[in-house]
């Protein structure tokens, strides 16, 4: 079996002209070679797989070439070029800083720098992944980078420039490599497919380029994978199955269902996605990206931001003409939110379906805010009734009519009779809203009826009030149940009564004879604070324990100072007692604790 070489290595560029998608950088490097203006240190930074290390090797071979061309390319015929192509050149050393990141490794490089090149003009040191150097190793390299020998050139490569020390950045010429465009990747894949005699579909290569995310090395690796899966005939369906991707047609159909407010179709499409084995969170993330592409294509000026083939771009433009921008704003936010919260959802499928239903109902809504950032719309009925209910004709809104409240036994004594009645005045006919569209509607005046009792209302006597009071039994009091209901009353207090709840949780109660309950507080202020609440607490305890003899008595229990917790009023009183100057300041300024 012949040794197989992956496409990323087999088709690695050997000249500057072979580098794809970095024309401005390669032209700058060739100009530097032609004009003999070489710096002592270069820094190549950018995403993975865009040609940083490849350009460093091509540049190192070109500056050591004995007979470089007029365009700055190496001749590939001299001894220096041949030794480099065969991998035996001693003038070019490539080190991985991820594995050689200590101070001792940098010292070894500095020792090698002292030896001049034996063949060629320059000794080139290529440090890949230079951001992995330790801080000590980076500092050890600073002096050599700033003042290297005339025959030494450093080329540093990294994917994370922000992690490199600023002192190193200031000593290098920085070249920022860009992500490759989809069109450039597709063009290179077509060349490889032609050389390897592989048939392909244009949509399949576009799918591979999207999967590569701007990296040529990733694109060639995915290309080899799909080629093996499809046996040399790359089709769109085979690429989808091999890469485990969802067809973009699902996203277009889902968006069309949103526009048509076809909720049933949205749910059925999502069911097909789940049956194909795709995760709901990944689907929502892909749907958000699709809607973003549609939003980009709503304007011809921003349609160029879409990195896709011409056929796919035309599909996005056609769908964008049928979508309102504010719906796209809301839909993108809803899909992104659902995708982020998907992993924490208890019923994951239900959370996705609810989002789809909301988007289908909000697609053609006219009452959404213009920004699309307002609250989500309330859900409407999902399915229409078999017999539609006739709707009333729209009428002009009228203010509510105030009507007199009839007297009842609760607010009028039985003997009271209406003595005076104010006759209603005929209402003036109001002008219609159609004739006066800008007029303000006024409330219709309704005559009031005043009732005067024939004799004064008698106040209830204390005896009647006592009879109306709730009657409790005389059940025995259990101390444990007393403490339990005391705690329950405190926990049931509303949030605005948090001060009372905190006091009650810190107090201790003790049951005495004849239903007497001693409540122990910390100080006199708490004692006076609790007095207004005692009747309510007593009534609660009497009802729960079915004993009307329960009576609460407040007592002050003095504790150690370090165990007390003061509220603002207590703290101010304590400071005034200990410091007369503070008391005078408070009184003179009229301050009160907040």
In short:
The protein is of the alpha/beta class and 594 residues long. Helix content is 44%, strand content 8%.
The first-to-last residue Cα distance is 87 Å
Name the assembly state: single chain
The CATH top-level class label of the largest domain = Alpha Beta
The CATH topology label of the largest domain is: Rossmann fold
Number of individual domains: 4
**Average pLDDT metric:** 79
Q: Helix count, per DSSP?
A: 24
Looking at this structure, what is the CATH superfamily of the largest domain? Answer: P-loop containing nucleotide triphosphate hydrolases
What is the spatial order of strands in the main beta sheet? 2-3-4-1-5
Unreliable runs, pLDDT <50, ≥5 residues? 366-379, 385-457
Radius of gyration: 42 Å
Structural write-up:
By secondary structure, the chain is of the alpha/beta class. It folds into four domains: 7-176, P-loop containing nucleotide triphosphate hydrolases (Rossmann fold, 3-Layer(aba) Sandwich); 182-243, Orthogonal Bundle (Helicase, Ruva Protein, domain 3), CATH 1.10.8.60; 248-362, Zinc Finger, Delta Prime, domain 3, CATH 1.20.272; 479-559, GMP Synthetase, Chain A, domain 3 (2-Layer Sandwich), CATH 3.30.300. Helices cover 44% and strands 8% of the residues. It has 24 helices and ten strands. The strands form three sheets. It has a five-stranded parallel β-sheet with strand order 2-3-4-1-5, covered by helices on one side. Strands 8-9-10 form a three-stranded mixed β-sheet. It has a two-stranded parallel ribbon with strand order 6-7. A hairpin with a 4-residue loop joins strand 8 (508-511) and strand 9.
